[in-house]
Amino acid sequence: MLIRLLRRYLKPYTAALIVILVVQAAQAIASLYLPSQNADIIDNGVAQGDAAYILRTGGWMLAVSFGQVIATLVAVFLGARTAMAMGRDLRQDLFRKAMDFSAREMAHFGAPSLITRTTNDVQQVQMLVLMTLVLLISAPMIMIGGGAMAMRHDLALSSLLLVILPVLAIFVGLMLRRMNPLFRGMQKAIDAVNRVLREQINGLRVIRAFQRSQYERDRFDGVNLALTKLQLSVGYAFALMFPFVMLVMNLTSVAVIWFGGHRVESGAMEVGGLTAFITYLMLILMSVMMASMMFFFVPRAQACAERIGDVLDSGISVHEVADPIHQMPHPGELALDAVSFQFQGADAPVLQDISFAAYPGEMTAIIGATGSGKTTLINLIARLYDATDGTVSLGGVDVRDLAFDALWGAIGFVPQKPYLFGGTVRSNLQYGKADATEEEMWQALEVAQIADFVRQDELGLDMEIAAGGGNVSGGQRQRLSIARAVIRRPDVYVFDDAFSALDFATDARLRAALAPVTRHSTVVVVSQRVGTIMEADRIVVLDDGRVVGLGHHDELLETCPTYREIAESQMSLEDAR
User: Fold this and answer.
1) At residue 156, what are phi and psi to the nearest 5 degrees?
2) Pairing label, strands 423-424, 334-341
3) Residue spans of beta strands (DSSP E) within 27-143
4) What is the pLDDT along the chain (577 residues), one digit of tens a residue?
5) Distance CA 99, CA 119 (A)
6) Using CA atoms, how far apart are residues 478 and 499, in angstroms rounded to an integer?
């Protein structure tokens, strides 16, 4: 997966990669050139007392060293730009993929995991690319070239490499085998920390209200400790690697000096050649050390790449057809024909054989006990899920054949849990209509019975709204969400229990203000309050995912025991009538 991901996202930067490869090759050649020239200075300059040779050769070495510095700067600059650009593209594709997910895929991955995959996981892959482009490309060149140059200076002494390199290779292989599962577990542990922290921040009021602060501290300590233990295990591995490699390097240096000294004494090797051989040996071992360090990035990046690939390769259950319909012949008309829905892996369907129609200028209400499938039914209309059986039609067209822009542009949706985005009242209303004028915004706020609250703030429409609407009450969030739906003047209004946080007086005023605004639109209301839907043109009664009643309020009181039971639980039978 890691190779496939890199091949896909580095392809647009092929030219930069070629330049980096050329520059790194030049840098490697320079690294191999300098020790050989240094040996010549010792053997032919210092030993012979030739000052001119020393100055001439030393000048070339300074020039090569300066060029090496320039090459390093170019490699680092281009490598960093390429790695960051790849990370940007990867995050962008993950974000776009997540935006295309239906509620089913979102539930499968979970928001905390998607956040971790888009940030931390991408960062690990990005870091691997950066380190590879800056360090790893030149390492095998120096390793191979250094080996060749070492053998050129003394073939017999080079036999030490046949002992050193296999020892290092076996050690690195064993360490990688141990690190792979640790890195996979570490990414899952980061997901767990992210999930628990997100729950605790969002549920802070509930935690305090039920005095569960200590329990939540213990829960966070549990996932935090699990992550810490995994990170310590990784740290121990790194702590073991570097001393071992340094031990091998130092022992090798001692062996080279010992055996090389005897060869110099016997005349088989010159002092400059021994110095160059030691330098090449150090270059080889440093390259092995860099490669070893890089190999420790690979397992974690591989685990992250697999998690990223799971998102990018994930199928989307709700997708737009190849040639979608953009125009609806009967705007506002809503029809459900024998609709059923079952969650993936569930034993029984949530909705079964649901059929009813709703028309412009009418209000259709949906009521039922908790868990009867009301919100799931609304989600099918908005196509957050696709029905497993039957047809949901809008404007005379199956919603699965409609273009997303046409479908969602025709619906003004107020969810059961209203969500406001961080910004201002103005920016939140512009989610409903991007080019809305101030007059349209105030009209929508007046309809939603929230205009007076906004006027009380000295900033007015620029009043600050915290992410999620945390700085306003539940009723104010609902009314601002209703204003956001009203401002777009859609063909279909969908209110999913959108009046539950309002008192009866505000509820009545809001519904009265909505009536003239929605008189040419289809209105679908999900409510637990019978008083909110008594005047509906059509009431759909759900029980255990089935329609058990369909008709007017008075009719259902006579014919539907489920509806009558709900009505009597909220008001006396006389008031209900």
Assistant:
1) -65, -45
2) unpaired
3) none
4) 778 888 888 888 888 888 888 888 887 887 777 777 666 666 565 555 556 766 777 777 788 788 878 888 888 889 889 999 999 999 999 998 888 887 788 878 888 788 888 888 898 889 888 888 887 777 788 878 877 877 777 777 777 777 777 887 787 777 777 777 777 788 788 878 888 887 787 777 778 777 788 888 888 898 889 889 888 887 887 777 777 777 877 888 788 788 877 777 777 777 777 777 778 778 887 787 777 677 667 777 888 888 888 888 888 878 788 888 888 998 889 999 999 998 877 788 889 999 999 999 899 999 988 888 888 888 888 888 888 899 999 988 999 999 988 888 888 888 878 888 888 999 999 988 888 899 999 999 999 999 999 999 888 899 998 888 878 888 888 899 999 999 988 999 998 888 877 888 888 888 889 889 988 899 999 888 888 888 888 999 998 889 998 989 888 888 888 888 888 887 654 454 5
5) 16
6) 7
CATH of 2-312, one of 1.20.1560.10, 3.40.30.10, 2.60.410.10, 3.40.50.300: 1.20.1560.10
Contacts of residue 440, Cβ cutoff 8 Å, sequence gap at least 6: 433, 487
What is the spatial distance between Cα 143 and Cα 96, in angstroms, rounded to a whole number?
42
The answer to whether the beta carbons of residues 255 and 110 sit under 8 Å apart is no
Q: What is the CATH class of 411-489? A: alpha beta
* Cα–Cα distance, 424 to 475 (Å, whole number): 17
Of all helices (H) and strands (E), which one includes residue 559?
helix 553-559
Task: Give the C-alpha separation, 482 to 501, whole Å.
Answer: 12
2-312 and 411-489 share one fold: no
Helix (H, G, I), strand (E, B) or coil at 10: helix
Contact 390, 377 (CB under 8 A): no
- Domain range summary for the chain, segments of one domain joined by +: 2-312, 411-489
DSSP-assigned letter for residue 315: -
Neighbours of 482 (CB within 10 A): 27
| β-strands 363-368, 522-526 pairing | parallel
135 residue type, one letter: L
306: its two tokens: 């697999």
Q: Which residues contact 373 (CB under 8 A, 6 or more apart)?
A: 341, 350, 351, 542, 544, 545
